[in-house]
Amino acid sequence: MKRLHLLCTLLCFLSVSGVDGKMTSGHDDARQARERKERHGKQSPEKTVYLQDYLDLDPSSSEDAAMAIGKAVDECRKIGAERLVLPGGTLNIMPDRASERYEYISNNDPSMKRIAFLLDGIENLTIEGNGTLLMLSGFVSAFSLDACRNITVRDLSIDYSHPFVAEGEVAAAGEGWFEFRFPEKAGAVLDGGILCFRDSCGREYPYLTLLEFDSRRREVAWHAHDYWLGDRCRAEKTEDGNYRIDRGDFGEAVPGNIMVFGAAARLHPAFTLLDCSGFLLENVNIWSCCGMGVIAQCSRDIELRNVKVEPSPGSGRMISASADATHFVNCKGYIRMIDCVFRNQKDDATNIHGLYMAVERVIAPDRLLLKWRNSGQYGVRFIKPGMSMELVDNETMMSYAGIKVKSVEYLNSEYAEVEFTAPLPGNVKENHVVAEDDGYPDVLISGCYIGNNRARGLLLGSRGRTVVEKCTFHTPGAAILLEGDGNYWYEQSGVRDLLIRDNVFDSCMYGNKSWGSACIAVGSGIPSRESSRYHRNVTVENNTFITIDNRIVNLYCVDGFIYRGNEVRESSDYPVCGSASDRIIINDCSNVEID
Amino acid sequence: MKRLHLLCTLLCFLSVSGVDGKMTSGHDDARQARERKERHGKQSPEKTVYLQDYLDLDPSSSEDAAMAIGKAVDECRKIGAERLVLPGGTLNIMPDRASERYEYISNNDPSMKRIAFLLDGIENLTIEGNGTLLMLSGFVSAFSLDACRNITVRDLSIDYSHPFVAEGEVAAAGEGWFEFRFPEKAGAVLDGGILCFRDSCGREYPYLTLLEFDSRRREVAWHAHDYWLGDRCRAEKTEDGNYRIDRGDFGEAVPGNIMVFGAAARLHPAFTLLDCSGFLLENVNIWSCCGMGVIAQCSRDIELRNVKVEPSPGSGRMISASADATHFVNCKGYIRMIDCVFRNQKDDATNIHGLYMAVERVIAPDRLLLKWRNSGQYGVRFIKPGMSMELVDNETMMSYAGIKVKSVEYLNSEYAEVEFTAPLPGNVKENHVVAEDDGYPDVLISGCYIGNNRARGLLLGSRGRTVVEKCTFHTPGAAILLEGDGNYWYEQSGVRDLLIRDNVFDSCMYGNKSWGSACIAVGSGIPSRESSRYHRNVTVENNTFITIDNRIVNLYCVDGFIYRGNEVRESSDYPVCGSASDRIIINDCSNVEID
After folding, report:
1. H or E stretch including B260?
2. pLDDT given at position A29
3. Measured between alpha carbons, how far is residue B393 from residues A23, B427, B430, B528 in Å?
4. What is the pLDDT of residue A25?
5. What are the angstrom distances between the C-alpha of A373 and each of A222, A379, A490, A491, B287?
6. Among A156, A61, A78, CA closest to A116
7. Residue-wise pLDDT tens digits, B311-364
8. Apex CA A234: angle with CA B239 and CA A231, to 5°?
9. How many contiguous H segments (helices) and E segments (strands) does chain B have?
10. Whole-model pTM?
11. Cβ A165 vs Cβ A260: under 8 Å
């Protein structure tokens, strides 16, 4: 077993070094050579670390760069470097010698992670990518930042030699069965009659779901829906090398389309930010990752500029990130996404929200036992002494009291016992929820393309000023959704000032109905809606809606809604659904103005 | 999904509270009541914490005790308690509210663990069990001690409501197939045609291997061997509710015997000791656990007195611990096991050894990149600055140089870069191994019963004085094995002073031949044996060998062996194998005296 493992590691190393024939010409450009020469000749004006100094002498080496990256990052920390310069070309990165840390990342899956760029407690550093392609293999994260301040990462691309989803062409479909044709590189095999996907090192890539994508349009197939496959899908191999599986209650699929086997876990986001302040990601491509493209929690002042989450051009892959392109949890300050592309990721383009913990038990007049009830939030220790929080009725989602944390004790990743500075109101009870109420981020999303992905576009839940402008949406579900609930996902929302202007909503809503009731919609889980005004002050102006589904706006529990100056016209590309009377549906709202 | 999980937790809680009808009469005995009364009446002479004070008021409550245990342990830490008193009766312990920590435990499997009694940095504490049964459910450890000093645990039992192995009766066997009958509580189900075992909460208990046990003798079946089943074993359910599986190359099995599906991972030892000093375990029963009964690493001065690792009486279970009963890695001072029982565990009774790390690369004249090559040792950071180490040729396993650590940097759980205080010898090269050479424990194993388990009895690898006396062995493989190798398991051995006296070896060697070449044997992995004298000074005197296999002693690479005053007679209980000429086999040894 151990020897086999060793052999696999070696094989993997050899096989990856030749990925796509992209290997490493021009690892070192003229500017860098000049800079490095200068550095050795005289005192450098900036403290700069060159990754090339830690790599093999041969700049075209196919070595695993992980150990060199670890050493270069250590040096940055040690000398307080201002710049870390990558060499250009392709860097292969394996898990084997990468840094390691257990991470609980909200809305992703916890694990002991191997991480290439593990930056903890680093300040005022710019990572100059120089166009480097980071080609990762297996279960290893690209970047994880913990308690960092003022970090810039720019000019690089992130890809994986083996993707975390499997993509198979629908070869045929019959009564109760599908037949899939996988490319050899997908690594499809049967183990005990169960369909598995393994890379050239034997690493397995578990899956749980199926979703059909239109191979011509390169987007979610018309009205396609998720199918829960489980992790033990029986299959038979046909004589021509295809795999036949039971269709279950999946319904139809179009031969020639691509069926995507969704990753069972979100283990390695491309960029993880934990408790950071000041982060700029610029001119960065995320072609693939295992989980979200960018996930930030308990962080502030984050800007993404010209960040592309999409499949690597020429790869032929349908899927980019295996989950949301971006996601922001309990963040503050500003969140900006400018001139970005979020395409073909396996979930929403963004979700900006806080976390609710549920009251498990009232232990004392000033003390609650709280529980994370969404396992995707386990271990996110956002509650801190001195924090202002809100107490919320999980039936109406309305806040009914402000409280302040005196002390907190985390039992484990599921439970926290919190002592407050004053007695709690008498009506606090089990299943009510609490959330941070201590400053919310201002959000600007401008000039972005968002589409072709699974599910929705922007899930907006910040109570700060939020502006969405000059974007193009082509999402299969709602383009903009106001979520938030305290009974299932436990995500805090409730916008206060949302402006949606000058966008094009181009043929959205081609997916299934569970992904949103309209192009711009409320989807909050509010059991008692009549008196709830969970959201406030939403303005939709000067947008163009090119519709294939007449459901443009569907709101409830909003106080203050303005709809003006928008253009609506029908798409010619798709069949059109629904009647004109579906266009704007408003229930349980106040102060609504529609032109 | 989340709601289902919640429901399961609740169901589990309700179902466990009635386990075996053993629930909790007399949670509080008269002595305790008196003591607690006194404590409130006057200053206690000892700092004592009563767990009952943290449990529900109702002493017969079926509540999950994990949170109360966590609070009581916190209080012990806070006040520097000398005693933690358990209430007697049965305490149910669930994972949900238990403490949490990621642990790398040698020869077990790493994971983020829930732990009932998590003692870190605690000193001079006695946990008085008062006969309490700790009835754990699911994936939660009983005790884990980290950097503790002078801890005693006594008078308690540890069991699990659902075992980590599955036991099925061989109902029938035919051409190429077996049919198993599982009791309902085993939770056998088919998922995608794959045989799975789940408890009443839906938790799955993965397996990997098969091993047959004799249902009448309650021990490993005659010449039975392990069979690698994998974690995806296809099965069919028969009309009478049995499960039929392919036999593969397993061979025969006797209908009526018990087939044990071995646990896929060793996640929750009953007692884990990491970097501890001074531990006494007294009058403790380990009826079940997920991994080893007691595992100590980098610890010193450990005594087990009247510790029983065996199936709970009356449970009908065949297996106790799912792996070794005890295991000691890089320990020092003394290790004593006195009047213990190690019966029906799913692996050896003990293994006392150090760790070898392999040279992956010579980085500089005074610097090595080292790798743990046995994945079971990953993350055991035993190398520390100032430590004396030995450099060992992995072909002969002979030490050829002593070196001293200047600094160590752990890349992750697999690799360490070590700088030494002086240049290394010129012949150091890849695949040589290094180990701590800085004091070895003295070992006393006296008055113990060891048998009926899988594999071997005692694997002895300490270079300190080691005495095995007055024990009774009934092991299916070697009763006493001298192991150690630097190419596969990477376990440091090489005894220097081993005395085996006054023991009864009663009908050992009824298992398969891979479990040892004789009752007392060397099993070290030494590729070049001729010049190697890896072990030294072994004396076997005044023992009784009741043989069913004539292979009594088989040694190689030993310098100094004395065999005197032993009695040999044949067992009448089993068929006898081999000829008298097999009794003592000595190769590549020096200074051998046989009476």
Report:
1. strand B258-263
2. 54
3. 38, 10, 10, 10
4. 38
5. 34, 11, 7, 10, 33
6. A156
7. 999 999 999 999 999 999 999 999 999 999 999 999 999 999 999 999 999 999
8. 110
9. 3, 48
10. 0.92
11. yes
* Cβ–Cβ < 8 Å for B418, B407: yes
Do the Cβ atoms of B127 and A125 come closer than 8 Å? no
Half-sphere exposure in the Cβ direction for B517 (13 Å, CA):
15
Q: Which two tokens stand for residue A54?
A: 């830690």
Longest dimension (CA), chain A: 75
- Which residues in chain A have their CB less than 8 angstroms from residue B430's CB? none
B interface with A, Cβ–Cβ < 8 A, is 2-3, 5-6, 67, 70, 96-100, 102, 110, 112, 114, 191-194, 230, 232-234, 373-375, 411-415, 488
The token pair that represents B223 in the structure block: 């010449």
Q: How many CB atoms neighbour CB B355 within 10 A? A: 25
CB contact under 8 A, A112 and B98: no
3-state helix, strand, coil in chain B (%, to 5): 10, 45, 45
* B2:A230 CB<8 A: no
Q: Measuring CA to CA, which residue among A55, A69, A72 is closest to residue A98?
A: A69
pLDDT of residue B36: 58
Start and end residues for every CATH 2.40.30 domain found in chain A: 354-436
Q: What's the confidence (pLDDT) of residue B40?
A: 52
Residue A432 is which amino acid?
H
Residues of A within 8 A of B230 (CB-CB) are: 191-192
Q: What angle do CA B153, B154, B158 make, to 5 degrees?
A: 90
Least confident of A54-68, A505-519, B236-250, B314-328: A54-68
Q: Nearest Cα to B285, choosing from B320, B258, B309, B313?
A: B309
- The three-state DSSP-derived secondary structure of B92-153 is EECCCCCEEEEECCCCCCCEEEEEEEEEECCEEEEEEEEEEEEEECCCCEEEEEECCEEEEE
Does residue A327 contact residue A303 with C-beta atoms inside 8 Å?
no
DSSP 8-class letter at A424: P
Nearest to A256 by CA among A200, A297, A218, A306: A218
CB B498 within 8 A of CB B508: no
Query: Is the CB of A97 less than 8 angstroms away from the CB of B230?
Result: no
3-state secondary structure of A545: strand
Confidence of residue A573 (pLDDT cuts 50, 70, 90): confident
Give yes or no for residue A74 having a pLDDT over 80.
yes
Is the domain spanning A354-436 CATH 2.40.30? The answer is: yes
Partner-chain contact B488 A96, CB within 8 Å: no
Q: Which of B64, B87, B80, B77 is nearest to B13 (CA)?
A: B64
Question: Considering only alpha carbons, which residue of chain B is nearest residue A190?
Answer: B232
> A193 and B193: CB-CB below 8 Å?
yes
Cα A358 to Cα A432: distance, rounded to the nearest angstrom: 6
Q: Quick check: helix, strand or coil at residue A570? A: strand
**Is a pLDDT exceeding 60 seen at residue A27?**
no
pLDDT given at position A10: 43
- CA quadruple A265, A267, A268, A272: dihedral sign: positive
In order of B275, B301, B531, the CA distances from B334 in angstroms are 14, 4, 31
Tokens of B351: 């293994």
The residues facing B497 across adjacent strands are none
What pLDDT score was predicted for residue B4? 43
This model of the complex carries an ipTM of: 0.90
